[in-house]
Amino acid sequence: MTYAITGITGKVGGAMASSLLAARQRVRAVLRDARKGAAWEDRGCEIALADMNDAAALTGAFKGTDGVFILFPPIFDPAPGFPEASAIASSLRDALLAAQPAKVVCLSTIGAQATRPNLLTQLSIMEEVLGELPMPVTFLRPAWYVENCSWDVAAARDDGVIHSFLQPLDKPVPMVATADVGSVAAELIRETWSGRRVVELEGARRATPNDIAVTFSMILGRPVRMQAVPRETWEALFKSQGMKYPAPRMRMLDGFNAGWIAFEGGQAGSRKGTTTLHTVLEGLVAFAADSGVRDGIAAETNSRP
User: Fold this and answer.
1) pLDDT tens, position by position, 145-194
2) Which residues lie closer than 8 Å to 200 by C-beta, 6 or more apart?
3) 2-146+174-202 maps to which CATH number?
4) For residues 108 and 290, what is the distance between their CA atoms, to the nearest angstrom?
5) What is the pTM of this model?
6) Pairing between strand 2-6 and 67-71?
7) Segments of the chain assigned to CATH 3.90.25.10
């Protein structure tokens, strides 16, 4: 079996590829930059070069495969109406129709079914466009990524205070580790199904922002507390960080905080990962110690890293 994986240089795509390689499956790494493919080529992957806006190149990358994994490129400051997402979704649809892989697994997000426009609407657009494909399609909808806490490591370590956009601070949030997302994606693409299906995924236990602070405190051996960023300051803050259109990001955060960005099937209907909050945060702290991380207020973006 040969599986084409987009986004293989990211955490989820990399974890998925590693799982497939460990299972002795053939992997075709779909990349924009050939220089990033050397490590995967050394592990036995075939390399295909394609930009997500280039339907012809994507067609060649997807042809002759038993399955394709789609990781929609993150667009953190989309223009009004999400034209970038619409263009990429159309390019992917045309390529998949031309290439006719046996099946497709798409990385989507918790709350993709929400009707209120927000930053995650880009993945709702993807689901709408690719959901009409004639081959079997699975939309994997993971929760908020625990790895978004990478932005918090410096503040926790140096100041003992983490600034949180997720509020209230004692509200449990569905979260998941990227390692679990990658391993589940590898399982899904090897399964047999028909039509369109949705799989929602979160960790074994939901965590509050305060839980994150307590876990950082345990790992760092120093007191760490969460501090909510006042809602009325968000727009000016995001614009000061370079965003032109902060409203979608603000509405996304509102959706998590108010609860209208949630799993369509509820907590009982979601699959559960096994990687703990402590394991992920411990890894982030160790990585920061080796390489350093950017200081400043945590810059949560969406449920994808």
Assistant:
1) 999 999 999 999 999 999 999 999 999 999 999 999 999 999 999 999 99
2) 110, 141, 142, 143, 263, 264, 265, 269, 270, 271
3) 3.40.50.720
4) 31
5) 0.94
6) parallel
7) 147-172+206-261+275-291
